[in-house]
Amino acid sequence: MAGRGGRWARGVVVAAGRRREVARALVADHAAAVAEVAAAHRQVFEQLVRAELEAIPVERLKDVTEGRLQTGTLRAVGRTTVAAVHAATRQDLLRIPGIGGPTAAHLLAAAGQIATAVAEGTAVRLDPAHPDAGTTALVTALHRLVLAGPAARRAAAEAAELDARYEAPLAEARYARGRLRGLLAGAEKRERARRAVESLAAEEERAQADGVELRFAQAAADLLRPPAGEVEVWVEFEHRAAEFYAELALLAEDGRLAGPTATDGRAAAEGHLPDGLAEQVRAQPFDDRGCTVSLRGYQAFGARFALARKKVVIGDEMGLGKTVQALAVLAHLAAEQAAARFLVVCPASVLVNWQRETAARTTLAAHRYHGPDREAARERWLATGGVLVATYESLRTLADDPVAALVVDEAHFVKNPAALRTRLVAERAARTEHVLFLTGTPMENRVEEFRTLIGHLQPDLLTGLPAGLGALGPLAFRRAVAPAYLRRNQQDVLTELPDVVRVDEWDELSAADRAAYAAAVAEGNFMAMRRAAYADPAHSAKLRRLRELVAGAAESGHKVVVFSYFREVLATVRAALDAPDTGRTGRTGTSVVTGTVAGSLPADQRQELVDAFTAAEGHAVLLCQIQAGGTGLNLQAANVVVLCEPQLKPTLEDQAVARAQRMGQVRRVRVHRLLATDSLDRRLVELLRGKAELFDHYARRSDLAEAAPEAVDISDRALAVRIVEDEQLRLAGPAN
Fold first, then answer.
1. Which CATH number characterizes residue 96's domain?
2. Which of 493, 492, 485, 460 is nearest to 305 (CA)?
3. Residues 289 and 189 in one domain
4. pLDDT tens digit sequence for 555-564
5. Do the domain assignments include residue 374?
6. CATH assignment at residue 335
7. Is residue 474 located within the same domain as residue 331?
8. What burial letters (b/e) apply to 403-440, b meaning 16+ CB within 10 Å?
9. H or E segment to which residue 255 belongs
């Protein structure tokens, strides 16, 4: 320091002090944003608990005390509910004639026990169809954190660490800021000051090289943006509900929110793994900087499980984000190894989804090994790294390039040891350090199939996995395969999510689909364009995906309702579902189709079909023309809804889904909308998003709009004409 001079030392200290001030301001800004969410959440939560307690009669206090309390006196003075007792003070109760000190204490304790039980079972749910002041305030506060994203949370944590690291050196370095102060300090303090300045200089050099200033500035700007309006935040919530709830879940896990603690559902969130294995997984380092969305606690645990065990099956129930967990694993590995290459193998029907999810959820580049440009994509992947998404069939032609990780989606496709695709996957898995199989198909009662999958991953486990183990029950099975298998269920880890989960199933048209579509476009036949994806059932990409979705629902015993605008499409769907499965979905068996609800069917016969559908044991499928099945029928027996094509009227889709999502529905409803990337579907979705959604948001506030959607819907003939013209121009190619 002496060689560099006091001026240099003062400059280092001043710069470090300013950086610490910026860091502390960022920590404060993030804490304020979190506190705003926590306050809004507490208000909603306490209101829900209070409403629940107000619905419990005061007589229930006897249940807690085994009938020892007399509650007639309370009812006589108007305290008729548990809420009225819980809100009272001891003095309030003592003023009631006939209630003494011991009785007052027992009453308060009993009411407290019930209130605690209610609070532990209460989850805050956000309903955009019925917003109120409390939930709107919560969504508005959450909106800030969702838009800021995980980068802001990581930046705030980094700022807190920087603040802590700078505190001691800045205190020691004060003796280096002036000659007189240094002379008066003594030799020992001057030496400590010199070392502190050197330490701060090194810290500043690292911070500048690492881009800390830019990260802090971006996070501060995101956290300090003005609050959005009510309509904007609710529309954003409808599109990104999972991200809003992910933020809530993370805050709950950190103990920032009222309600159940993070450890209450830990066993279920960790797949009931043995304690020692779960502890090993929790200790696994996990770098999520490559993820652009927040991971739920159970999702981060799934990623850690895959990293710690290296070759595993993630068998979570459909809808828990297996794709996101797999991508998080790849993002972690990419942070450790620059330009790392990863391979995802999946059915052709989900190629587009994998490419989209990779781009939307991570900073990794996505390359698709499919179609005429697949070799060019492979060359880009080899040169720059990232994720190469390929089909099972393409493994035969894909060069044997080494990869850092292999992800196999719909892994039940490789359960047959004799199949070529199984052998190809097994060969790659054997040569790859990290392998992740994804499947939502329950395996507890299919031990022989599961043995095949385990043999690809951790063959040493096979000796402890006898063929009859499945008969001992799911928990015994999971304990035996725990080192390689993790499964969680929706009801265990998504208790606070909205009751409707919407998934857009994007796929590419097959060659036959494209030919039928091009012919319809050439004719200018808008309705033929909408149903062209089902013109050739044997080669229909949408029909293949529909069969996969229905087969998955059948595995879990779920009922499915399939909607289409066209009776011809429903007839095609019925023929496909009634036909035996030839192995294209990786599963066997047929679905139970109870009938087709069409506009020409009398109302009483429609109800008979619905009754038969409801009464069917386990899995069943009901087909509905959306104009007929979308209104007036109670389809709450279904918790899987498939929309064969996007509708011109957004409200028509909403009303169709509302037939399943209504009072009495006890299971979460999943809505799958089948869409083709290279068709009018993309244009429809783009045109109807934005103004249509805002307008529809207002329409749902109106009773008249609910009763007559055609009165407010923006879709009309001009929209169809515009789309036809756009598609004709697109297929004609660029003008020469």
1. 1.10.150.20
2. 485
3. no
4. 888 899 999 9
5. yes
6. 3.40.50.10810
7. yes
8. bbbbbbbbbbbbbeeeeebbebbbebbeebebbbbbbb
9. none
Q: What's the pLDDT at 5?
A: 65
Give the orientation angle of helix 717-732 with respect to helix 511-523, to 10 degrees: 120
Residue 166 lies in a domain: yes
Q: Which amino acid is at 393?
A: E
522 shares a domain with 557: yes
Residues 6+ apart with CB under 8 A from 440: 315, 316, 317, 318, 322, 552, 555
Residue the block writes with tokens 């304790």: 109
Distance CA 312, CA 309 (A): 7
Burial of 594 (0-12, 13-18, 19+ CB in 10 A): buried
Residue 461 and residue 580 in one domain: no
Alpha helix positions (H), 458-540: 474-481, 490-493, 511-523, 526-531
Are β-strands 366-369 and 311-314 bridged in parallel, bridged antiparallel, or unpaired? unpaired
Q: Are 548 and 615 in contact (CB under 8 A)?
A: no
Supply the range of the domain harboring residue 18.
6-44+130-235
* End residue of a domain, out of 440, 459, 493: 493
Around 569, how many Cα atoms within 13 Å sit in the side-chain half-sphere? Answer: 26
Give the number of domains in the chain.
4
Cβ 327 vs Cβ 357: under 8 Å: yes
Q: Which residue has the tokens 């696994």?
A: 284
Considering the domain architecture, whether residues 153 and 302 belong to the same structural domain is answered as no
Residue 323 lies in a domain: yes
- Residues 254-264 pLDDT 10s: 888 887 765 56
Kindly state whether residues 512 and 484 are assigned to the same domain: no
249 within domain boundaries: no
Segment 297-302 long-range contacts (CB within 8 Å, at least 24 positions apart): 297/249, 297/250, 297/253, 297/262, 297/269, 298/269, 298/270, 298/488, 298/493, 299/324, 299/325, 299/328, 300/328, 301/269, 301/270, 302/486, 302/488
List pLDDT tens digits, range 92-143: 999 988 888 888 888 899 899 999 888 888 888 888 778 899 999 999 999 9
CA distance 255 to 473: 35
Do 584 and 451 belong together in one domain?
Answer: no
The count of other CB atoms within 10 Å of the CB of residue 729 is 12
Q: What is the DSSP string of 72-103?
A: HHHHHTT--BHHHHHT--HHHHHTSTT--HHH
Q: Say whether both 560 and 460 belong to one domain.
A: no
What is the structure's pLDDT at 581?
A: 58
The three-state DSSP-derived secondary structure of 566-632 is CHHHHHHHHHHHHCCCCCCCCCCCCCCEEEEECCCCCHHHHHHHHHHHHHCCCCEEEEEEHHHHCCC
Mean pLDDT of the region 297-323: 91
**Three-class SS of 423-446:** HHHHHHHHHCCEEEEECCCCCCCC
